[in-house]
Structure formats: C-alpha cells, structure tokens
Design a protein that fits this description.
Elements lengths: L5 H24 L11 H8 L3 H17 L7 H10 L5 H22 L4 H47 L4 H11 L4 H13 L4 H12 L2 H16 L3 H25 L1 H24 L13 H23 L4
C-alpha cells in the first residue's frame, strides 16, 4: 500500500507557523505579554521604566494601533481581532511576520513535498496568512473570555473601595494593582488617563467600544449616569456586579447545555475532511481513475460548496445568542 506523507507535512507546517509566531511574540515582548502572567503588563513596564507617561503612551499605542490601520488593504479583516487581542506587534510588523512565515513555509514545502511551484506558493501564502489569523483569533477569544470572567470581581472590588471612602478614580487604581491582565492593564490605563485629567466615564466608554463588550457598556453607562444625576455609586455598581455575574452564569449554563450539539456539529463538519485527509495519506491514487474525466472538477466543486454550506449551517445552529 502506498502511503503519502504530504497531508501530514501540511498540518505540521501550519502548526509550526503558529508556534513560531507565538515564540517570536514572547521573545520580543517578554513573559509579561502573556495572559498567564500574574503581574499585569502595565506593572511590568512600570518596573522597568519608572516614567509613567511613557508607559501610558506605549499602552495607548498598542491598544489603538490596529483599528487605526484598517485602511491597509486586506488588513481590515484582522484589525478587529488584533484589537481585542491587544497584539503588541504593529500592523506593519504583523504583515511582515505573515510574509516571513510564508517564505519559511515555502522553503519547508519545497524540501518536504513534490508539489508544483504554483501550488507551493499558494499553500505557503495560505499558511502564512491563515496561521497568523488563527493565532490572533485564538488570542482574542482567550483575552475576551478572561476579561468577561474578571469583570464582576473587579466591579465588586470597586464597590468595597468606594464603601471605605475611596474616590472612584482610586478604586479603579486599586483594581489595576490587584487584578491580573487583561483587566489589570486596561484599568491601569484608565487610572493613568484620569491622573492626567481625562474624564473616567469617557475612558470607560472608549474601553467598552474598543472591546465591543456589552457588560463594559453597562459599566460605562452606569458611571456616566451617576456623574450626571448623582446617587450612590457603590449601590449602582453592586447591582451591576450581580447582573454581570448572573449573565455570566447564564452563558456558562447555555454553553453546557449546547456542548453536545456543538460537538455533534463539529464532528459532522470535520468528518468528511478527516476522511479526505486519510484517503490522501493511505491511498493517494484513489481518485486516479476518474481525475481526468470531465465531471471530476465540477463534482469536486459541487461537494466543496455543499460542505462549506454544511459547516456554516452547523455553526449557525449551535451558536446560540443569549
């Protein structure tokens, strides 16, 4: 039986691209850029550079640079994800990394496979762009998930600070010191902007808009209303914390209920692709008798279109909005 290692080589090259980008990211910016770090990136930067204004400027640049670069051709599809992931690479650097890993993938394909030059170039570009997009998307999902989980605890910490007599700006500063990333650096940025004279509610609104998170919008609106009409901010935030925590529990419950359906959809969508990969590995000449017929290409396109529709519909069925 003839066995082809080409599909396995393609998978390994894609995984290598993702690992290479992650390794380069940690090498350039250090361990503090990782969301698993106990110390927030802002505090780590302040420890290295005592100039608070320079740290503020650097963090503001990192947090806004991707949405400001949406005019770059084809970068708009990545800008929103990179913004939510707070990728410290500049858009130009991220595009350069795409080109670098594409070249490396082309070299690996040249030595590892016998595909035609045009196919190798197409695959290498796909691995470079797709690998970086996959990495950024994964970072964005992880960061947003951690932020949503940290938010109710952070609001409750602000409530306790307000009740012992601290002003709201000081309560935000306490959250920045006590809470890890991603929320620690974000609230630290708001605290620094407030120290330089910016309105806190304006900073919160910009933060909520940048993250496109409904709970953050609730927080920004609550603070704005309290500033305009007065009232006990501690009680308002305490009620908001309960609402956010209840919403978070509801999301987790829905996620648990739909887990089986999501797995079924993932299996039904991935099974045909897995079978195709197995055929290419264990019997690469399986389609040789029909590959030159006039119906092969239309048939392959027909199957590909319906498989894509199947994946989209499966995703729509299990992606329940609450």
């Amino acid at each position: 039986m003839q066995i082809s290692a080409a599909p396995l080589i393609y998978i390994l090259i894609f995984v290598a691209v993702v690992v290479l980008v992650e390794g380069l990211y940690l090498t350039v910016f250090g361990k503090s850029i990782s969301l698993n770090s106990r110390v927030s990136r802002r505090l780590a930067l302040l420890e290295k550079n005592q100039n608070r204004e320079q740290v503020l400027e650097q963090l503001r640049k990192e947090m806004t640079q991707h949405m400001n670069a949406r005019g770059i051709p084809l970068y708009q599809m990545l800008a929103s994800k990179a913004q939510k992931a707070n990728i410290a690479f500049t858009p130009q650097q991220l595009i350069g990394i795409m080109g670098l890993v594409s070249v490396m993938a082309l070299v690996a394909l040249t030595f590892g496979t016998g595909a035609a030059l045009g196919v190798r170039i197409l695959l290498s570009v796909g691995f470079g762009v797709g690998g970086v997009y996959f990495w950024v998307n994964k970072k964005a999902k992880k960061r947003m998930s951690m932020l949503e989980e940290q938010l109710p605890d952070a609001v409750e910490l602000m409530v306790r600070s307000l009740r012992v007599g601290h002003p709201f700006s000081s309560a935000i500063g306490i959250v920045a010191k006590e809470v890890a990333d991603p929320l620690g650096s974000e609230f630290g940025l708001i605290a620094d902007e407030a120290a330089y004279g910016r309105d806190v509610s304006e900073s919160l609104r910009e933060f909520a808009k940048r993250m496109d998170n409904q709970d953050l919008h609730f927080l920004a609106v609550a603070v704005t209303i309290q500033q305009q009409s007065g009232g006990n901010l501690a009680e308002i935030l305490e009620g908001l914390a309960k609402v956010i925590r209840s919403r978070f529990k509801l999301f987790r419950r829905v996620k648990a209920i739909t887990a089986e359906a999501k797995f079924s959809g993932l299996f039904l969508s991935g099974f045909p692709l897995g079978v195709l990969a197995c055929i290419q590995v264990f019997k690469p000449d399986f389609y040789d008798p029909v590959i030159n017929t006039e119906y092969f290409v239309p048939g392959a396109l027909f199957v590909g279109v319906f498989l894509t529709i199947n994946i989209l519909f499966m995703r729509m069925m299990v992606n329940i909005k609450v």
